[in-house]
Design a protein that fits this description.
single chain; alpha+beta; 2 domains; 6-stranded antiparallel β-sheet; 6 strands; 39% helix; elongated
């Protein structure tokens, strides 16, 4: 469960009850995210595929047809048929730096991930 969280653009920053920080990215450009997945796995795709076709093929190739986890990416076919892609980050601090740069948050490079994430959540929520 999240002790606190913030949304900044495509990113969700969560501070878990344990104090750990998790960053998710929910892509606005789903097809672009699917291209990232395909490139990571050397999966050949047709640039003319629709987002739904592309997502379904990725889920069939790397998952159970409805969902696939490819590295840090989670691809899901919704009941409506639309495709959702979100990503977690192995390097949470790098993701926090990226978000901080996007929102103009100045941080101390000596902060640990928990300090950085907590302060960034507060900053984003205060805007």
């Amino acid at each position: 469960m999240a002790a606190k969280s913030a949304i900044s653009g495509e990113y969700i920053i969560q501070k878990e009850d344990s104090g750990s920080i998790v960053v998710y990215r929910i892509y606005d450009n789903t097809k672009g995210a699917l291209r990232e997945v395909a490139e990571e796995k050397n999966f050949q795709y047709d640039p003319n595929w629709t987002t739904r076709q592309f997502g379904n093929k990725v889920c069939k190739e790397f998952g159970d047809g409805k969902e696939a986890i490819v590295g840090c990416y989670n691809i899901r076919v919704q009941e409506s048929g639309s495709i959702e892609v979100f990503r977690t980050y192995d390097n949470t601090k790098a993701a926090l730096r990226e978000i901080a740069g996007n929102v103009g948050f100045e941080f101390d490079p000596n902060w640990n991930t928990q300090q950085f994430g907590s302060k960034l959540i507060d900053f984003v929520n205060s805007k």
